[in-house]
Write a structure and sequence with these properties.
This protein is of the alpha+beta class. Helices cover 60% and strands 10% of the residues. It is built from 13 helices and six strands. The strands form two sheets. A four-stranded antiparallel sheet has the order 2-3-6-4. It is elongated. The chain binds flavin-adenine dinucleotide. Flavin-adenine dinucleotide (FAD) binds next to α6.
């Protein structure tokens, strides 16, 4: 019986240079939404994509790019991986592969038994017995797909997993968290670290892998809420000055909305004269929104503190 460690290999060309090309293609697609293609420069892609995906949560644009990874792990981990429905998988088959040809099976070392001689001995004994029975069943004429019934969860498997960047972010969030299985984390944290090194714009920072994405998310959220609070404050000031009446909620939260308000102050004034009663209602509504945003902002702050702790 061969005992090995889990590992991975990135199959898609995915070094920093490739990542930059991906970011540029994402920028090309995303700018169609805003018709801001004219703002593209040689260096605009990383920050543009980071902001659009993390701050504005316009994550569908990062679905345009995919990465394939070959993962060597045990069947327990692979069984969890294949629950990710948006991925494409190609996995070593225990129906078609005949481990009798090499007269041994390969298993993945459960790292948590490494330093405990008794537990390690129990695990090793169970796998060796399973191997013996598997080979015996083959010798007695069973096919590999029949004999596999006795193979252990620790059996080594190879699985190619292809996902778009949005799905990879989702997978890392679930599978590197401290709630995930330790062997899943053993596999996924190094992969996240690789992604994070070549594409830090979308895959985090130098913070510990387990909470890196969660913290990055909270920070991004915080930025959005800070922006909202600041824009709402601005909108309120303009309202007092110029009598804002019917900005949409989106307008109120956006810098563009505030500019629009300033640029068209004469129009607002005119409309205010026509609809005097609406001024008070609009002001009240903005006041309520402002309070709600501050409450959300506090909640995010508390969450961030919790994550830091
Ligand atoms: C810590 C942990 C413990 C777990 N424990 C168990 C367990 O005990 N038993 C068990 O059976 N499973 C368990 N799972 C697996 C879990 O239930 C999910 O199947 C797995 O995590 C895949 O996640 P997902 O569905 O979010 O992802 P994906 O399939 O990768 O989908 C990505 C996202 O796309 C969206 N999506 C995909 N398909 C649909 C759809 N049909 N409808 C609507 N939205 C969709 C969802 O937003 C989803 O989050 C566990 C997972 C984790 C991380």
């Amino acid at each position: 019986m061969k005992i090995i460690e889990p590992s991975f290999e990135i199959l898609t060309p995915f070094d920093r240079e490739d990542a930059m090309l991906m970011l540029k293609r994402i920028e090309r697609a995303a700018r169609v939404c805003y018709k801001s293609e004219g703002k593209t420069t040689d260096t605009s892609a990383p920050e543009f994509v980071r902001r659009i995906a993390n701050t504005f949560k316009h994550e569908s644009v990062i679905e345009h790019e995919i990465v394939s990874v070959l993962i060597v792990c045990d069947r327990g981990v692979s069984h969890e991986l294949v629950r990710h429905r948006l991925c494409a998988f190609s996995q070593e088959s225990t129906r078609y592969c005949n481990y009798g040809k090499s007269d041994e099976i390969t298993v993945i070392m459960p790292f948590f038994f490494k330093n405990d001689a008794q537990r390690y001995a129990s695990w090793n004994c169970a796998c060796t017995k399973a191997e013996w029975e598997y080979l015996d069943l083959l010798k007695r004429g069973a096919s590999p797909q029949e004999a596999r019934s006795v193979l252990p969860n620790s059996l080594k498997t190879e699985i190619v997993m292809t996902a778009n960047l949005r799905e990879w972010r989702h997978i890392f969030k679930l599978r590197t968290s401290d709630k995930a299985h330790p062997q899943m984390r053993e596999v996924m944290i190094p992969i996240l670290n690789y992604f994070s090194e070549v594409m830090p714009e979308l895959f985090g920072s130098s913070e510990p892998a387990s909470d890196a994405l969660a913290i990055a998310d909270v920070k991004a959220e915080l930025e959005v809420y800070k922006q909202c609070v600041s824009n709402t404050n601005k909108a309120c000031e303009f309202m007092r000055e110029d009598t804002e009446l019917d900005l949409t909620i989106g307008d109120r939260f956006s810098v563009e909305g505030v500019k629009k308000l300033r640029d068209s102050r004469d129009l607002w004034k005119m409309r205010a004269i026509q609809n005097e009663g609406q001024y008070e209602a609009a002001e009240k509504e903005v006041g309520i929104l402002k309070a709600q945003i501050k409450e959300l902002y506090n909640q995010r702050n508390q969450l961030l503190e919790k994550l830091k702790a």
